[in-house]
Specification:
Blueprint (H helix, E strand, L loop, with lengths): L2 H6 L17 E6 L8 E9 L9 E4 L1 H4 L7 H4 L5 E16 L14 E5 L2 E17 L5 H13 L5 E8 L6 E9 L4 H8 L5 H7 L41 E2 L2
Antiparallel strand pairs: 1-4, 1-7, 2-3, 2-4, 4-6, 5-6, 7-8, 8-9
Length: 251
């Protein structure tokens, strides 16, 4: 408790950037959680409508459900009845493979490097940043069970390079998690990636105060993924290096 603890629970949203993928994107990363620690959590969330001139509503964890009834939830008391199951986990995102080149219209923006992956040309955006993978659990918890399945199979989510791929958009959006290969991060790299990370519970709680913890400050869904008309393409597909395909998914 005290000053330090109070400040730790303030809504420090800049410390919780989230991974956002567009349709067809494939993120490569290492989990920064075993799946059984403070860097992975899930719960039942109130889906609240927009207020005033807001475009989007917000999702706030039901603190009564999260604490098994030990704490009072003001949103339950107010009769909020729209819920969704959500979960989040910290990961060191190495890169994202896109179907199109960098959509940044800034003339100083660098084009993304091109590779061959799965029989097609993709564009690599290098990230190398600790981000939250924050998803709805999916119908019948289908998305969540992919993460749980790998944690149960290997005893930990760590020590493997994973890929998360988004398919579709809107209500047809889905995600597929797969192992690329077994690959341990260096101890120093893990320590640096985890430095200063809040627990996922603290991040969930930070949204209760009304801050936009559900809005991704790092990677936006806005912008076209189509290559610019004047973008220089390689002479032939054979000129492009290939990216290693995933080795294993969960059926």
């Amino acid at each position: 408790m005290g000053l330090d603890d109070a400040e730790r629970h303030f809504g420090n949203y800049s410390a919780a950037p989230k991974l956002r993928l567009q349709a067809g994107d494939r993120a490569r990363f290492h989990f920064l959680s075993t799946g059984y620690d403070i860097h992975f959590a899930g719960g039942r969330f109130h889906d609240l409508p927009p207020i005033g001139d807001q475009t989007y509503g917000r999702s706030v964890v039901c603190i009564r459900e999260f604490t098994d009834g030990e704490e009072v939830c003001a949103f339950c008391e107010e009769g909020a009845a729209d819920f969704s199951n959500q979960f989040a986990v910290w990961a060191l995102i190495h890169c994202i493979y896109h179907n199109g080149d960098n959509p940044d219209s800034n003339p100083d923006a660098e084009p993304w490097e091109q590779f061959k992956l799965g029989g097609r040309i993709v564009f690599k955006e290098t990230i190398e940043e600790s981000l939250l993978i924050w998803l709805r659990a999916g119908r019948a918890k289908s998305r969540f069970l992919q993460f749980k399945g790998f944690a149960v199979k290997y005893g930990s989510l760590e020590d493997r390079l994973f890929e998360l791929r988004r398919a579709g958009s809107g209500i047809d959006t889905d995600y597929a998690l797969a192992v690329v290969k077994e690959e341990k991060l260096a101890k120093k790299a893990v320590e640096e990636a985890k430095e200063g990370l809040l627990s996922v519970e603290d991040i969930f709680r930070s949204a209760i105060g009304g801050g936009p913890a559900w809005i991704p400050p790092r990677i936006s869904e806005d912008g076209s993924e189509e290559p610019a008309a004047d973008e220089e393409m390689p002479v032939s597909e054979a000129d492009l290096p290939s990216v290693e395909e995933v080795a294993e998914g969960l059926v």
